[in-house]
Amino acid sequence: MYNQKHLVAKRIVFGLLALAMMVVIFFFSSQNGEESGNLSNSITETVVDFVVKTFDVQFEKTEENMSIVKMIIRKLAHFSEYFVFAIFVTLFMYTFKLNKLALSGISLAIAALYATTDEFHQSFVDSRFASPIDIGIDSSGALVAILILFLIFSLAERKYKKDDIKVETYPI
Fold it and tell me: Residue 172: how many CA atoms within 13 Å on its side-chain side?
């Protein structure tokens, strides 16, 4: 069903996408405190304005309220970056003919290790610091993505077995 050329192409594509996400994450972590803060403020303003206008919500733009929304957005950004990164890493790993649970565990380890090294890198950036909480949020985003893919591939595998279709790797 899958020939070697397809597997190599998928490994290259998913590997490059994972590397691209690593570069994006590294770029954001390389921003100094002022640059990062300005970007967060801009995104927070945009999100608040959109929600207020779209859903006709009453929201007082006090410093305290905006600070809470900004923190939530920053943490969601961490979660989202690693969610996407883990999808690419997991899809790359699933091109190998190994146990799906082991491949998922390796994917999670890769994402958690990158989150740790990224926070370490961030500790050297002006006005930034490393946060174990961010490592946990990053790893949680990766875990959720990996669990979703695990479930999808488990269901797909079950369907292939039910239909007696021989699959050499996971159906990606």
Answer: 25
Query: What does the block give as tokens for 113?
Result: 């290790």
Which CA distances in Å does 37 have to 43, 67, 102, 138, 156?
10, 11, 39, 19, 43
What proportion of the chain, given as a percentage, has pLDDT over 70?
A: 92
CA torsion 109-29-141-38 (nearest 10°) is 170
DSSP states along 74-126: HHHHHHHHHHHHHHHHHHHHTTSSS-HHHHHHHHHHHHHHHHHHHHHHHTTST
Element (H, E) at 29: helix 4-30
Over residues 130-154, mean pLDDT: 96
CA dist., res. 98 & res. 163, Å (int): 22
Residue 95's region, left for phi above 0, alpha for psi from -120 to 50, else beta, is alpha
Per-residue pLDDT tens digits for 17-72: 999 999 999 999 999 999 999 999 999 999 999 999 999 989 999 999 999 999 99
Mean pLDDT over the full length of the chain: 92
